[in-house]
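Technical note accompanying the year-one report. For the benefit of new consortium partners, we illustrate the data format agreed upon in the data management plan: each record pairs a sequence with a structure-token string. No post-processing was applied to the example shown here.
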Amino acid sequence: MATILNSAGRRSAQLQAVLKDAELVLALAEGALLGGYRFRKYKTSGTGPTLGSLKVVGTVVDIKAVQELNDVVMAVCAARDLVNEPVSFLNATQLSAEIRTLARNTPGLKVQVLDKAQIEALGMGGLLAVNKGSLDPPTFNILEYKPRRAVNEAPLVLIGKGVVYDTGGLSLKPTPHSMDYMKCDMAGGAAVIGAIAAAAQQDLPLHLVALVPATDNRPGGNAFAPGDVVRMHNGLTVEVMNSDAEGRMILADALSYAERYGPELVITVATLTGAAARAIGQQGIVGMGTADERTMRSLVNAGERVHERIALFPFWEEYDKELESEIADMKNLGGDSAGMITAGKFLARFTRRPYFHLDIAGPAYLMRADGYRPQGGTGVGVRLLYRFLRDRAGR
């Protein structure tokens, strides 16, 4: 529908709800809005009009449900915009500026941005190591939403990978079909930003924290190298086997930082491994962790409801052996197989709280459109996380 409306040059449209099923009407509206998204910021000509608004008319649909749909779709589109921005604009500092702008327009959402000096003072060795080859400083972004009537005593913490561009560092990636779209490597960060913003817009009665460590990963200057040993925020040491396994280094620091909140649950979202994409392609998200069965089932059910499906992978202790190091507490890379699981196992060592990991490497960025998922950044994870949070809030 969105394709037809865009082709017809329609900037707005009206959806007449003749069906008696409100859920189906809202699903049609959601598909049209998500499918109508286009990233046109850098087009100077031939852009053409795109569908900007859709009015839903009919007594079967509640106005609050329409507003909720609007808030969620806007959060997805904001996440897509961030993913589609090139690093020539969206370095770590600019990502923090975009987060601040979003927070100013979101009631109750507070933001704190830690600069490089503060990151150094906290001893976030993983984030600092990845940043060593860059001319731009890193940032550590803390978003918090804490309503008065929160139903959770301890916060839910969402952590998103914020690698605004990934060359692979000294373990340089090949350019074709790899480095050429690595502006998308902060899609996990975009997802948690969008999810907490949607939750705040909808005034969900949940205490939420989102953490986004941000930097690019470059091979220049004093870049960290395979063979280096890095001391992390929580004091553990990591032998670097591959500088392209950088996302887990910055997420690990964020995970140990999150311990100060005593969270009910910690969820990481990241374009973390090619192994995840190879395992299930672009149709779903790889998930695993130490959270209890009920929590995992809630996340899977949320994914099914919004068609951002989670494929649960094993988290057996035998995978831990893959990370053993002769000279440090662990390596940042496992063996040749099950790379998505050993990456999750690495991260789990940096938190003592119930934990779940979402590897969105497959569906985060598409080379061609697929229905309501556009070419480029898809905003995957926003709707999944929002639905999970909504269910947790009892809505």
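Partners are asked to follow this layout when depositing records. Residues 1-61 form one domain.
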